[in-house]
Amino acid sequence: MLYQRLIFVILLTTFSSTVFSKKVVMQSGTKDSYIVTILINSLSYFSTKNYEIILADYNIPKSRVLRFIANNEEIDIIAAGSLSEREKILLPIRLPLLKGLMGWRIPIIHNSKKDIMLNLSLNEFKSLKAGTLHNWSDTKILESNGIVVEKGGIFEGLFGMLSKNRFDYLPLSVLEVSREFEKNKNSSLSIESHSLIHYPTAYYFYVNKNNTELAEDIRLGLEKSFVDGSFDRIFNKYHGKAIKVLENEKRNVFHLENPLLPSKTPIQRKELWINFH
Length: 277
What we know:
277 residues; alpha/beta; 33% helix
């Protein structure tokens, strides 16, 4: 058995001493985090099923969490990016929880190159060197588009590599760029102000392949939340400010392909995605 520290138990039940709750264990997170709030909202449409969401802190890497879910051990659900290899071992609920925001990237650059992306064509952009971690799926995406990538082993180390001009830019998602820039502040670096890099990505809930009842309830709950507007209210509460800033900045977008995106991704449902151009 894994050591676990229960952080919070969220009851979505009709109070009855004769009805057992359906426990759903999710790794880490807090009661008021975005992903947990979305999960609570999705399962709230099925209160008579007595779902009990347990947030447990496991100090283990994501790859191990995925294996535990696949083996039906300890953990029931995770939110993670869409990759074909994940969909082979787990059951994805193919509704994008972040509306594709992880695929919208803002570059961090060296101050000596503050205008390096100004008025570039797509081919000119592709001639620039990116910096990423060797185990990021983004590395394969960038390389598949003909972009040379300088790979690092430690996230914080990428900022030092960029400050030494080892590469031209560090692409971080719009959800993390400001936070990570502040945490790793370096006087020689800045957030680039002209451009956005985009490739389609999806971020799903995953459960064990045999946990079809939970998967279907989450899917139906998400669909209901799209219809009644509660999904967008939660989404905008957490991410609306960042989206508004980008909409006002009117950046030039470099659109790239993502060959890692599974074919069943519901790209055709435009209402599920954010589009800045």
